[in-house]
Amino acid sequence: MAASGYLGWDFSTQQLKVIAIDEQLRVIYEDSIQFDKDLPEFRTQGGAHVHSDRLTVTSPVLMWVKALDMILEKMKSSGFNFSQVRALSGAGQQHGSVYWKKGSAEILKNASSELPLHHTLKDCFSVGNSPIWMDSSTASQCSSLEKAVGGAQHLANITGSRAYERFTGNQIAKIYSQNPEVYMQTERISLVSSFAASLFLGAYAPIDYSDGSGMNLLKICEKVWSASCLDACAPALAEKLGCPVPSHSVLGPISPYYIKHYGFSPDCKIVAFTGDNPASLAGMRLQEGDIAISLGTSDTLFLWIQEPTPALEGHILCNPVDSQAYMALLCFKNGSLMRERIRDDCASGSWDEFSKALTSTVAGNNGNLGFYFDVMEITPEAVGIHRFNRDNQKVSDFPKEVEIRALIEGQFMAKRIHAEKLGYKVMPRTRILATGGASHNKKILQVLSDVFNAPVYTIDTANSACLGSAYRAIHGLVAETGVSLADVVKLAPEPRLAVTPTTGVEEVGGNTC
Ligand code: XUL
């Protein structure tokens, strides 16, 4: 390893991943533990247990600890030089929660270097199976929370999102209502991210503003817990959560356990961990005005926002790399499967023919417009196929090429409309960073570029949360001096320019937004 190294961790749903980078941001080590395959004793599927009600979804917390023991042992046997690591940070799947039993702070602090961590911590959790983001069992807690604070929009104004079943406040409320004594025995509640940071710190790590915004509990503007949200979820919750901190905070030096057991330097700093989506924003090096669009099974958008306007659809989170800014997260369920269905119906199952249809039709589709939701959409909550001609009359079908363009323009216009509802503004320097399967199709990207009137770049994001965590580790060391993440990661590979807006085309859908 070169003179200094930095580690980025990603505690995601299916695996634990680590990346080490050097001062030049080159990846010098990479490894992962797949929960199902490498830790079969926990009997997870995709890293989780879906309970018999089909709504409750949990992961065993000791599985995460054991995965950390395992991956560190792998690094040690491969000769990884831990003593060069100057700082580390990490990401966790968002919303999941960990419940530490009374007395665990002491055990964590005094972890013996003779034992693996999962032995030391085996009795530390009052809830052995942590609820995770896939859980949707808290509908009644969600409606109570919205009611308690004066409605869904009001909750969104305070916390950045209306009540969602996976959001941590509602999960905590469920645990308290079903099992008050378990709640009472709990001295600390962590997110997956702050739990993972705690393992390295040897003390309870605070929740960072960005991941804290996925709880329905944090006032995203003031960056303090909302007393009315806390009170609606469970009693004495503030003391169990600790005070939230800026995402770039240095939490302290690594715990003596890692110094003795693995040879880390006592100077190695732990930078606050955050959620996987915020960490990906850092990994993709999003800047003010930028949008990242992942075109996969479902389509996901990350937006950099200066002045957010929380809405009933989508989430506003505090920005993980700039405390003055925000990020928004929008998820569209009808992504690739919808595009594939129309390709099969209108282009004989061929992407080439699909692309030709996009080339043979004009931007704006002569006023023909469609919204295509084979499955119940999240953003907006709607289902079915809805087509409108240039006179805004509902029609039952379109010629095949018109249908194809209507689908793609409709999908991207919906993204722009919902992004703008959340306060997003296309700026002269806006870049669209596209990833995922459909980002390989230039004709689709051309439509995206025309709808947003901005250049589209492609970027490889396979490791963006992990890499973003390593970047954040470097940034954490200098953030207090006013250096931005963008300055720190100047040497990282640039995204590739794919297409620019077609000249002479008025913004597609500009008149209808
Ligand atoms: C975001 C969400 C998921 C998890 C997955 O709101 O629930 O993206 O973060 O890891």
Question: What secondary-structure arrangement, pairings included, does this model have?
Answer:
Blueprint: E1 5-11, E2 15-22, E3 27-34, H1 35-38, E4 49-50, E5 57-60, H2 61-77, E6 85-92, E7 97-101, H3 104-109, H4 117-120, E8 125-127, E9 129-131, H5 139-148, H6 152-159, H7 168-178, H8 180-184, E10 186-191, H9 192-201, H10 209-212, E11 218-219, E12 224-225, H11 227-233, H12 237-241, E13 250-253, H13 256-262, E14 269-271, E15 274-275, H14 276-283, E16 291-295, E17 299-305, E18 315-318, E19 326-332, H15 336-346, H16 351-360, E20 369-373, E21 384-388, E22 394-395, H17 400-421, E23 432-435, H18 442-452, E24 456-458, H19 464-478, H20 485-488, E25 496-499
Parallel strand pairs: 1-6, 6-14, 6-15, 16-23, 23-24
Antiparallel strand pairs: 1-2, 2-3, 4-5, 5-9, 7-8, 7-10, 11-12, 13-14, 16-17, 17-19, 18-19, 20-21, 21-22, 24-25
The structure holds D-xylulose.
Q: What can be said about the biggest beta sheet?
A: 7 strands, mixed
Structural class by SSE content = alpha+beta
Number of domains: 2
Q: What would the principal axes of the Cα set say about the shape?
A: globular
Unreliable stretches (pLDDT < 50, length at least 5) are none
EC number: 2.7.1.17
Catalytic activity: D-xylulose + ATP = D-xylulose 5-phosphate + ADP + H(+)
Enzyme class: transferase
GO molecular function, one term: kinase activity
